[in-house]
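Protein 1 of 2
SEQ + STRUCT:
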Amino acid sequence: MARSVGICLAGLGCRGSSWVIAGESPDPADAGSRLERDASATEICPTTAALDAQRAAANPTPSVDARHAGLWRGTLGGGAAAGFPSGDVELRIVDGGQNSLRFGASASAPSSLDPSRGYLCTESSDGVGCATRSGFVGGFAYPLESVVSRGEVLSFRMVGSDPWGPWCRLQAPLAWPDQTQPCGSAFGVGPVGSDTVGAAGCARVAEDGLAVAIDCELMYSLQRCRCAADACVAEYADILEVGLKLTDGLLGGSLWYADGFAAATVSFARP
């Protein structure tokens, strides 16, 4: 199912109208007094390294009970299970290591990515859908964050947009004036405006009402990105909280769709 429309592009603020590709010299007629800013101000523009650090700082260091650690294989149940990429789920929990959750068999990384075309989003007569009905991508090892054991309960977070990360990093960030930001500019994957879907297809609508057509699959893919001055990364605001309880040697709980619409039961056992 398509996400709701009429929203701002991920990573964008809905104000202003001029924009340039980050790193290009702005037109003096548009830049105005911005050209008079101290050149050192550009040094404090956010970078993808800063975005990655910000994401890491928002998640505590993993703290895992030995009873939760290890490799687990699970099965989804209930009517909502059909919306996930696979009914088989693999969970890896390593205290201080690489924790992950994957639906189905491991998938190889794409041999090439085209930043000008949509990624993992498909347009059909029913609209635009990204990944599966649940919003999750099969074969992708979702990195787990905030992995913590509290008694019998193991909790962690998943970021739904993580599969788009490599594709997002190929996007050329766009910049526009924003004096509320430290370096006087904000950055995003497209011009300031909102995404809309109508009978004529998808478009970005600027504050002045001018609509610019855009491929629907590309538009929905770009919503999975946020940008800094040097590049873009996966949008990390779409977080799914998961809690699993250890009972008689099994980890059990629920996995929700990325949009919170439905949930499937899940039971994990050690292989």
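Protein 2 of 2
SEQ + STRUCT:
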Amino acid sequence: MTTEQFFSLFLEELKTLPELYHYYKFLSSEKDFEFRKNYFMQRIDYIAKHVDQYIKDGHPEPEIWDCGCGYGTTCLYLAMNDIKTYGSTLEFYYPFIEQRKQYWAQYGDSSLFTAGYEDIYDHHPAANSCDLIIVQDTLHHLEPIHDALAICYTCLKPKGKMICIEENGANIIQTAKLYKQRGSNRVITFWDEKLQKEITMGNENIRSMDEWNGLLSQNKLSILASDTQYIRILPPFFYSNKKANEMALIEANIANGFLQKYFYFGINFIAVKN
């Protein structure tokens, strides 16, 4: 199943799950639809590309851990392509996963996606068991970050990879917006009723590529510069007469390092176990 086919079916699924509207806003504003689709598609395309490449490189049945799988959308896409994943999640996401798997069972083997409600500091895959770890909108929530990266390093097989999807912490506009929203309070705690314990997490604690480079290298993980991708810079009004895939090409051709570093909203990157 292509990512475009998956997205079309995903939109139909959303019509049956209004509880997800607040998170996936595709049905809330027609004028912003292509803008939001572009961001969604570039991220899932990036994951799909690198999972597919890993399989082509001689790993036909990779062990994949989606660390912070949320509602399981990425795992469901992979399941529709006969790829098994295990996802860890918390909070309000978990109750909807089985319901979503029932919908996607019409189109593929949704049982290839399994999930656990867990704090990764207490429960995670065994050492040297993961070929790939997906961390999508998750790294900036993991605290203490060094402990989380140590877990990822331990879980990865030799030469295993992390596929990282993040907001750009060097983005001037987003940094100012988040500071106004949460000040300097970058780490918070909350009580998890299901686990009956206090959870520590990053409070939208986004970081720049330079910061991620430093943190990952301290934990024996190396970012592959050639695979780093900056996404989303043009605001919604640029999309009035263009589709998401057209805008993705336009943004990709803005070869300006300063704009990428300080004004692109998202960063996708690969880290490999040394």
